[in-house]
């Protein structure tokens, strides 16, 4: 298919869309962008962390959604698939297909799983199976309880999930992937090499079948296509050729949702998740701006993939490119915090999450989108609910203590040159940081800087300046990963915009920084 043929197909799809379901389509286009907090619930978390006693599956699902309602979630986005589904699908393998719950650990289904992981895996898929055997359709029950709580229910589909790619026989993999290695990406190396290649119509049809089943089976307000699991959709060097193919396919998806909306009697929006930079997304074949301008999507989530939260996503640039489109622009928050590639990741603190949420909202996003922010995580339930509830608006967030860290981008496009800000070495280092609006001048600002200890000498306390004004050294500790972590009391930041943090070594001895955070909090009364 040449470029002209691809463009013709896109135009034809758009004509079909506008002529077939114009009333519903026009209604969606006229709707205002959505606001508030969006929560993505992956396809396994509920089952991995909750026992399913006999006859209690529905009640437990309801209780789970009730906690999210208490956290102020506006849109609950239920993930139903990876390479299998967590419900009894008619078109894809379900997680438990091939599994014998009464069998031994050495049954063929489990043979490729490391012995230490078998019990945990059996427990998870056993609970999925138990929900099904109790007559509960998990996504349908989630949707019903969302509506009871006034939450908008969506379903999200992972468009190229590749977990366990290094274990070819892992039961995570569905039969389609196993039986069709000729449909994998070509000329690729590493973790994402065995992702499916959307240049093949068989791959697009495979996912289209799941989309059709989802729309026929579930009464949802929106369907999200999660291209961040994974954004590697085409063979190496073929991404530019793949972009119009994917856009034409998105036209087909929009037509399917418009048809389903007519049958349901209400609009069904379409959303996508893409990398945090417009140029990165486009270089991977994800032409999200065209999708928005052509009316193919209603929700655009820009986000890191997984390795770390990003505090400096260019929301303003996305907003400018979207122009007059009424597409909802959401900033994605990941649960990991990893200042640089050479240090371990930690779960984000409530303060870091608040700082990232302030960043996306203050820079022009309509909504905060949470990925892997599970209620079964490390935060106590009251802290979890209060923090998420505050993310509904910038005004409520600005009342919370918050922190912003220097992190890095975990996704880059083909040929894209990028160097992570940290680690950084030199005798004088400068870092721009966006703290967001400052509530008032009484709020306290603190900097935390993690230094790599020098091999042959003690590390003298460096001079640290915020916007050219000196900061006062406070505490020092050694972290579990061996960094010297120093805190500094800083002068009041500027009210908005970029704050400049400068670190100057003593005696012209080079220093290496692995971690840098700035925080704001109200003074103690």
Describe the model.
It is a single chain. The protein has 525 residues and is an alpha/beta fold. Strands 1-2-3-4-5-6-7-10 form an 8-stranded parallel barrel, surrounded by 4 helices. It is globular and about 70 Å long. The model has no long low-confidence stretch (mean pLDDT 94).
For the report, how would you describe the main beta sheet?
Answer: 8 strands, parallel, barrel
Q: Assign an overall shape.
A: globular
Hey, roughly how much beta strand do the residues contain? 15-25%
Helix content: 25-40%
* Neighbour order of strands in the largest sheet: 1-2-3-4-5-6-7-10
Tell me the Rg in angstroms: 24 Å
- Number of beta-strand segments: 20
Low-confidence stretches: none
Structural class: alpha/beta
Summarize the SSE layout with pairings:
Layout: H1 3-20, H2 22-30, E1 36-41, H3 45-49, H4 57-70, E2 75-79, H5 115-133, H6 138-148, E3 152-158, H7 175-179, H8 201-217, E4 222-226, H9 239-264, E5 269-275, H10 278-283, H11 288-293, E6 299-303, H12 315-322, E7 328-333, E8 336-337, E9 346-347, H13 350-362, E10 367-371, H14 381-390, H15 394-397, E11 402-405, E12 424-426, E13 428-434, E14 444-451, E15 463-466, E16 469-470, E17 472-478, E18 484-490, E19 498-504, E20 511-521
Parallel strand pairs: 1-2, 1-10, 2-3, 3-4, 4-5, 5-6, 6-7, 7-10
Antiparallel strand pairs: 8-9, 11-20, 12-20, 13-19, 14-18, 14-20, 15-16, 15-19, 17-18
Helix pairs in contact: 1-9, 4-6, 8-9
């Amino acid at each position: 298919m040449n470029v002209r043929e691809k463009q013709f197909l896109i135009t034809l799809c758009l004509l079909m869309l506008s002529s077939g379901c114009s009333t519903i389509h026009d209604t969606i286009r006229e709707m205002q962008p959505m606001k508030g907090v969006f929560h993505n619930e992956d396809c396994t978390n509920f089952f991995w962390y909750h026992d399913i006693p006999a006859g209690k599956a529905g009640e437990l699902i309801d209780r789970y959604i009730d906690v999210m309602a208490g956290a102020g979630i506006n849109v609950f986005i239920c993930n139903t698939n990876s390479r299998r589904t967590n419900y009894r699908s008619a078109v894809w393998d379900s997680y438990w297909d091939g599994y014998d719950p009464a069998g031994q650990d050495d049954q063929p289904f489990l043979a490729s799983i490391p012995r230490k992981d078998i019990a945990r895996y059996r427990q998870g898929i056993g609970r999925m199976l138990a929900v099904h055997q109790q007559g509960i359709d998990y996504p349908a029950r989630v949707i019903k309880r969302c509506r009871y709580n006034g939450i908008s229910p969506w379903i999200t589909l992972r468009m190229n999930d590749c977990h366990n790619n290094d274990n070819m026989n892992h039961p995570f993999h569905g039969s389609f992937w196993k039986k069709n290695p000729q449909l994998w990406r070509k000329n690729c190396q590493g973790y994402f090499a065995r992702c499916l290649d959307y240049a093949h119509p068989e791959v697009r049809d495979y996912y289209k079948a799941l989309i059709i089943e989802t729309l026929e089976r579930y009464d949802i307000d929106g369907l999200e296509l999660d291209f961040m699991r994974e954004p590697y959709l085409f063979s190496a060097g073929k991404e530019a050729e793949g972009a119009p193919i994917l856009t034409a396919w998105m036209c087909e998806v929009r037509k399917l949702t418009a048809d389903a909306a007519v049958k349901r009697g209400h609009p069904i929006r379409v959303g996508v998740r893409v990398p945090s930079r417009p140029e990165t997304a486009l270089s991977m074949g994800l032409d999200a701006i065209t999708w928005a301008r052509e009316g193919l999507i209603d929700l655009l989530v820009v986000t890191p993939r997984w390795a770390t939260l990003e505090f400096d996503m260019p929301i303003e640039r996305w907003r400018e490119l979207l122009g007059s489109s009424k597409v909802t622009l959401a900033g994605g928050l990941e649960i990991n915090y990893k200042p640089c590639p050479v240090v371990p990741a930690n779960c984000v603190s409530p303060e870091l999450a608040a700082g990232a949420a302030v960043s996306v909202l203050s820079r022009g996003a309509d909504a905060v989108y949470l990925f892997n922010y599970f209620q079964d995580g490390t935060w106590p339930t009251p802290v979890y609910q209060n923090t998420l509830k505050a993310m509904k608006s910038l005004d409520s967030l600005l009342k919370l203590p918050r922190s912003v860290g220097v992190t890095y981008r975990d996704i880059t496009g083909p040929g894209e040159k990028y160097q992570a800000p940290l680690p950084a070495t030199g005798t004088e280092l400068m870092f721009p940081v966006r703290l967001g609006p400052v509530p008032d001048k009484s709020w306290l600002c603190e900097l935390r800087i993690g230094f790599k200890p020098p091999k042959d000498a003690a590390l003298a306390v460096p001079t640290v300046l915020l916007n050219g004004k000196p900061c006062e050294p406070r505490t020092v500790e050694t972290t579990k990963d061996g960094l010297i972590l120093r805190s500094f009391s800083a002068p009041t930041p500027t009210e908005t915009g970029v704050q400049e943090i400068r670190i100057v070594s003593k005696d012209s001895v080079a220093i290496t920084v692995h971690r840098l955070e700035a925080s704001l909090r109200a003074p103690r009364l």
